[in-house]
Amino acid sequence: MAYHRQPLDVLALPTWQALQQHRQAMQHFSMRDAFAANPRRFEQFSLSSCGLFLDYSKNLASDQTISLLMALAREVGLEQSIRAMFDGEKLNASEGRPALHTALRRPLGDKVLVDGVDVMPQVQRVLQQMTELVGRIHSGLWRGFSEKPITDVVNIGIGGSFLGPQLVSEALLPFAQRGVRCHYLANIDGSEFHELAAKLQAETTLFIVSSKSFGTLETLKNAQAARGWYLAQGGSEAELYRHFIAVSSNREAAVSFGIREENIFPMWDWVGGRYSLWSAIGLPIALSIGMSNFKELLAGAYSMDMHFKTAPFEQNMPVLLALLGIWYGNFWDAQSQAILPYDHYLRNITKHLQQLDMESNGKSVRQDGSPVAGATGPVIWGGVGCNGQHAYHQLLHQGTGLIPADFIVPVVSFNPVADHHQWLYANCLSQSQALMLGKSREEAEAELRAKGMGEDDVQRLAPHKVIPGNRPSNTLVLERISPRRLGALVALYEHKVFAQSAIWGINAFDQWGVELGKELGKGVYSRMVGSEQSAAEDGSTQGLINYFRGRHRG
Ligand SMILES: O=P(O)(O)OC[C@H]1O[C@](O)(CO)[C@@H](O)[C@@H]1O
């Protein structure tokens, strides 16, 4: 049965209206003043759970803001939606599927029913299949065509079959075992392929063709190219099974590509691509860090699942982040959200959260097909600190728009070099502090006068030095990156995104918007290579096709 709850007209709810009024009352709210007036603001607006500490005190929020947002969550029935997700209701109504990525991290013995069938035995079987593969590769039992052990694993996949595994395997490099190097091939770009192939030896390389659908153009093209390269490097068709395995829910397509049945790792319709790193899509992670660390990752995500399911909303990290996002997006017109990890190992988290959030919540209609009334998912962007400070933070501090930021920082570095980590951590804190404090005109003028500047110069320069401040941020602190804490961190954002979708009444688990471009791509390609004679429907596309054809003629 498809998810049947009629989305509420959220804008008509009394709490939404109360929030609108409250927003007016908050027009001159000052975070500086709020901290001065309440020495306990930090304690009151922070919490810790699942190895993560969240400071949300630097927000345009008072006690009343938080209690109104909590009331909104209750009024829309968020608790029931959360239960519905964990219970496997078909929340992905447009595709008639549940969204059960949480089943992938549940402990042995739990039961999760999909259409009356307990899926947990399948989940455990695949974990066992992964354990065997990882064991054989790490112990050198799995050998390439020249009988040498595997040293390099190439994950061929895109979107969710790439970003999550890449984030986690690279974030957990300090936990990497036995020298298996992981590489990623995603885009349909010969240069990417060429640069990667130049680093590899076919005889010691294993390719994982990672595609839930096994129908994704980029992945299939890269898999064919990898196969051609492998054959050209001395591999044979007969030994292909030693070098190509697959993760897919489309067994037939993987078999017809030439992958042996026993080397196909199943996944299921009820796991969305961007939520799939916990499944066999996470094989590169497991091959890098080993199965026990992979299970730690799952355990961390499970702890966040339990937190999300059971913690009261006021103490519930995903719910708090979701509501603060709604507060800015729907009531303060914020159109984007910066994700700023202050750690080299977490550098890919922004890219993963881009897909997670934007593919999930970049929607304009609700579950029942009716248009949404207000803003939904924001643009997610950002990157690793301090690099951003010397690039786009200027706009965070003095640009015209309000951009809430999430800072993510570990307290302990894996690689202490002199006092680098102290400085990195200090930079993270000082950025959120600067966003909040800003610099008033008086302060700017006083600063310039203190430098001995004449009054004309003071007046000329002061406006450029003013920083409005009062700009919101959250800071997430981890003691040190570990599989468990990273699992909790990624699951935190998954649940944040879901909670927002439930409040807006949209489907976070489909992605119809990406289909049109794929469809049109076929026609454009045929016109470029000359197999389709009719002109493109618009002059611009046809002109650009002609440009390409002109260059490639003859
Ligand atoms: O794993 P697949 O089926 O190759 O899909 C890859 C990605 O493509 C998308 O379907 C978007 O085109 C994503 O949702 C998905 O993660």
From TrEMBL:
Gene Ontology terms for molecular function: carbohydrate derivative binding; glucose-6-phosphate isomerase activity; monosaccharide binding
Protein name in UniProt: Glucose-6-phosphate isomerase
Catalytic residues identified in the record: E359 (proton donor), H390, K518
Pathway(s) it belongs to: Carbohydrate biosynthesis; gluconeogenesis; Carbohydrate degradation; glycolysis; D-glyceraldehyde 3-phosphate and glycerone phosphate from D-glucose: step 2/4
Recorded catalytic activity of this chain's protein: alpha-D-glucose 6-phosphate = beta-D-fructose 6-phosphate
NCBIfam families for the chain: PRK00179.1 (NF001211)
Role according to the record: Catalyzes the reversible isomerization of glucose-6-phosphate to fructose-6-phosphate.
Listed Pfam families: PGI (PF00342)
Broad enzyme group: isomerase
Recorded family membership: Belongs to the GPI family.
Gene responsible for this protein: pgi
EC number: 5.3.1.9
Origin: domain of life: Bacteria
Main location: cytoplasm
